[in-house]
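Consortium newsletter contribution from the modelling node. Members have asked for a concrete example of what our holo predictions look like. Here is one, prepared for the (S)-3-Hydroxyhexanoyl-CoA complex that several groups have been discussing at recent meetings.
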Amino acid sequence: MSDFVSTKRHGNVALVTIDNPPVNALSFHVREPLMQALVSLRDEPSVAAIVMACAGRTFVAGAEITEFGKPAQQPDLRAIVAVLETIAKPTIAAIHGTALGGGLELALGCHFRIADRTARLGLPEVKLGLLPGGGGTVRLPRLVGPLKALSMIASGTPIGAAEALAAGLVDAVFDGDLTAQAVSFASETAAKGGPFTPVRDRNDRLDRADLPAFDKEMAALAAKARGLEAPIAGAQSVRNALMLPFDEALAAERALFVTLVGGDQSRAQRHLFFAEREAAKIPGKDFGKRKIARVGVIGAGTMGGGIAMAFANGGFPVTLLETTQEALQRGLATIDKNYGVSVTRGSLSEDARRERLDLFRGSTDYADLADCDLIVEAVFEEMAVKKEVFGRLDAVAKSGAILATNTSYLDVNEIAASASRPQDFLGMHFFSPANVMKLLEIVRADKTSPDVLATIVDLARRIGKVPVVVGVCHGFVGNRMLAARGSELETLLLEGATPRQVDQAFTDFGWPMGPFRMGDLAGLDIGWRNRKARRQTAVIADALCEQGHFGQKTGSGFYRYENGSRAALPNPEVEALIRDKAAEKGVALRAIGTDEVIERTLYPMINEGAKILEEGIAARASDIDVVWVNGYGFPVGKGGPMFWAGLEGVDKITRRLDHWHGQTGKDIFRVASRLRRMAETGSWDAVAS
Ligand code: 3H9
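And here is the predicted structure:
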């Protein structure tokens, strides 16, 4: 008996309960008593069967992630599973909540697994840059076959109880009191008698005829892994399960796990796991939260419609407001169409589509927003328009309703002043498409009340978003750093780089797409319009737009696109244009290497991140990482820009920024004091005064 593991008898069935809140992670203080309990129950003749279950909200959700990278303490999970497999009497894992990672591997050590109907089971280690290291890659394929195991391990996405039953991962699914049903299942199974075969000895699903299909899947996986090692290691390990004797495959899994757990990619991904959870915490006391039952969204365009869908997807009734019936009907029709696409793709059932559509109420009358607890504005990105909206809203919104602007750049304090309740006001910067993109920058204005902030952070998580609280400045965290990342792009072209070379440097780094290809995809006219509004220029992009080359949609931009194809081909016209513009400016073209591209794009971006920290716009360096990974495609295996700075060497970054500042005199290369301090102390934190 311990605080973390207890044993209770129900007749001849022993019930072992793990109790380690919040998620029953398999930390050392669980493993040790669990091992003792299993050994003693194995040797206790009066026990005919053993049920393993968990207290609280979930079955074991995995190994204790904070233990990785520290000296291992025995017994480890593998030793516990090995003992489980020496038990001749039936062992049953009773799964509720989520059985994840080491939790599912523990369950795979049992003869049987039964699950609550709402349970979810999976091996999400890949999301931490790992592969399952407790035998999951060699036992799971023995139950579900190598192809299903590969899909679960490479995606890391858990499956529901019904799917697990159909796949052979669980033996029964129950509603109601799971422990009671597990005890009955155990006693009936024991009464029927054995022998009971451990999963390690069940080879009938390991059919080598699956090998060609498996190798095809594995090749496809490698092609889209973008430098991530874990999915490939996971696949290799499942392949080993198919090809090698059990013990050899298990040893190979261990070797791969040890390599990954000590590597930078897993460190980066573990950093992001905790960073995301940390970002959702508002320092200070536990602020109360306001009740949100209905959400209003003003504007049914692309952004407003996406935001409305994000709330409906989270189960919230939404009032969608437009200026005219025509615009409203157009917006609602687009929402309907988008849900239809999800049904066609099989990601949404027809019933769910209808349920979601039923959550929408359209209106052209501000008075209809009177019963909303949160109202999000998504109209034109223009100060005067936003101010007018909030002036009108002020007259109808109920007392205590939260008012939010979805601006990407504008001064949230100034917009807040247009309503008489700045304490209820904040920014909610969604990313497009808002129903898909995970990131939500929550912009805290000067007078935003802490309970409003706490309510919106909580709400964001409830609708599946990753919230990060940021302060007011031009572009907040993400777009401000994006501007710093992009400020040298055209200069690189004018000095001799081609769009393809720059984009290649980005994709080699792990970005899904380079900035020029991205510009072509988004439409170069968007940036052109914004620049004109701000009286800014971009030599090459402006010239392209003036000639009607807006990117992919017009068949030409920084690249050429033939017959509507998405394949980006070199564009000799652009290369000639670059040469002409360089000649006009008297710049001699030279060869530009990948290192220079990185130094002049990513280093200024990190420098800007340091300024953002200095100004208190972001509370933590890790918040910036969360923004960039979830909103802009920064490669997860590098942990976000501020984490990557540590890997790259902050010393080196400051040295090279100094170099470029000396060469160009440009402000983006002027080293921020927080970056210099990081180089000296190894910490992004401010020094306490
Ligand atoms: C593994 O198992 C490796 C093995 O194959 C090999 C072993 C040899 N460890 O997410 P939440 C904390 S790798 C430590 O907000 P939810 C979390 O930080 C592991 N801490 O709750 C948070 O702390 P705080 C494979 C953990 O309800 C609190 O619990 N397993 C762990 O939204 C609540 O978490 C996984 O990758 C952990 N394993 O979601 C599963 N898990 O309150 C990871 C959670 O101080 N976990 N915490 O901020 C999850 O996916 C979600 O936490 C879960 C609950 C779905 C379980």
